[in-house]
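A favour, since you know our structure tokens better than I do. Could you add the entry underneath, on a fresh line?
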Amino acid sequence: MSVLTREEYERLAFSGAFPPNARVELIDGIIYDKAAQNSLHATGYRLVQEALRPLFPAASGFDVRGQLPLALGERPEPEPDIAVVRGSIRDFRDSHPTTALLVVEVADSSLLHDRKRKVPLYARAGIPEYWILNLVRRCLEVYREPDGATSRSKTVLRSRDTVSPLARPDVRLSIADLLP
């Protein structure tokens, strides 16, 4: 298995090496297939997206990006379900964002991948907050305080709980509102 740089990966994508409907992402230089989205995943994704948009409005200098790449170094180019970044849509015309305030993955069949590969990836990239909307256990896993390849803080919140994004400590989101 060959380890790729983001540049090599993007050249492959641009050259048509992947089928048009391929769902892939580059994690630590390795291309991984992304699972097809079932209706449960799609509903969770939309609920999270709709909950975060009013909290991080474009007019205040935020972009809530859905299933778009992050350029987190030489070898990773993940495509998280949601990434909240500073800037506007046009700021990323020529290059993908290199960081995010908050990254969210909606997980059912991808749960192990999102824990095993993405927790360390986002921690190494210094992403201050990473959420996994765990559809299997019907909870929200909140990872904070990145430290090397891990997060020093992991909190599991259930449907009766609320969460305040680090970048918006003044608001509270109901976990029940995020779950399909």
In short: The chain has a mean pLDDT of 94. The chain has one domain: 36-178.
